[in-house]
Protein: ATP-binding protein
Amino acid sequence: MSRDPESAAAREALLAAVRTAIAVPDGETPVILIDGPSGAGKSTLADLLVAEWPGPAAPTLVRMDDLYPGWDGLDAASEAVAAELLEPLARTGEGRWRRWDWADDRPAEWHPVVGPAPVIVEGCGTLSRVGVAHARLAIWADADDALRKSRALARDGETFAVHWEQWQGEFERYVAREHPRDNATLRVDVTAWPLEGPRERHDGTTVVV
Structure:
């Protein structure tokens, strides 16, 4: 991460919050959720958390863009991750999520998630009121609006460009309904953080949301 003193202090505060979140009784699965608008750096922030993880057990990382059933699927994925992963994980120590095959535009295989190893879920739609009820730490990542859009379109090119307004409208409706920023226990502005670098979905396509 950045050597800028302000960014470094924010990083240390973030890692301190993670250490507190994962200090749970034996058998309990600590869940960390990361939400925020497109291009804010949620996915890379999650990768950095995994790389600098302060606990003894490595976390399982779940990316919401693997769940969205298409470009109009934010709400469906938000509901699914709460009902199929977070709630049963909290109740029984086992949950699951189903991958969406973007290439064939259909549901694909299920992925089991078993505690008590920590779980990170990152992506738009994680901080719904139902979702945060099962989180030990709920992070809202944000960045300058112009920078967010340039990051998102630079990484995902024309594929995202043609859907930007559609996705942004769906995200704004989600924000108006669920108030995810208010649901967060930690808010991080990553405008000045060096969060560049593409990533891939399970199907091998590059994306940033």
Notes: Residues 196-209 have pLDDT under 50 and may be disordered. Residues 71 and 163 are 7 Å apart (CA to CA). The helical segments are 5-21, 42-51, 74-92, 129-132, 145-161, 164-178, 180-183.
